[in-house]
Write a structure and sequence with these properties.
Strand content: 15-25%
Structural class: alpha+beta
Helix content: 25-40%
CATH topology: Alpha-Beta Plaits
Order of helices and strands: EHHEHHEHHEH
Number of helices: 7
Strand order of the largest sheet: 2-3-1-4
Distance between the termini: 9 Å
Largest sheet: 4 strands, antiparallel
CATH architecture: 2-Layer Sandwich
Bound molecules: 2'-deoxyadenosine-5'-diphosphate, magnesium ion
Radius of gyration: 15 Å
Number of strands: 4
Length: about 150
Amino acid sequence: MSDIQTTFVMVKPDGVQRGLVGEIIQRFERKGLRLVGLRGVIPSEQLAETHYEVHKERPFYPGLISFITSGPVVAMAWSGVDAISVARSIIGPTNGREAAPGTIRGDHGMDIGYNLIHGSDGEDTAVSELALWFPDGIMEWNRDIEQWIYE
Ligand code: DAT
Ligand code: MG
């Protein structure tokens, strides 16, 4: 079996405002990923700026920070084999208009900034984003149905 990874996923303020939290969580659950962290928070400027530090020179950065701090987000940690790329494929590409139907952004989004959801893009970012959003750590637990998810 390949590597078990844990990835950071966040429903952004547009997803919460539009009532898509349950729909989004259900897609990750049904896929077979294991929920190991869940937290609702209205991000502070500092939290948002640290999270999106890599984009701080981009023209869209000020708008991105005000969007992410505008209301509640739902921060999640999902675990499974290749969880980082599996989550990114469930989410779809950045621009909802270009994302394929069947992905979260493709089924629900029409915009590049208001794109509903974030997912870590690699192993290093997953580690740093999980530490940032879950400073008290994530849940350690064994799932009874694991034997029916992986051969
Ligand atoms: P992704 O969220 O697909 O990993 P990213 O890391 O390139 O995309 O950018 C982070 C977020 O910044 C993205 O989810 C939405 C926003 N963003 C990116 N490019 C943008 C653009 N050209 N205009 C407005 N917002 C943008
Ligand atoms: Mg990204």
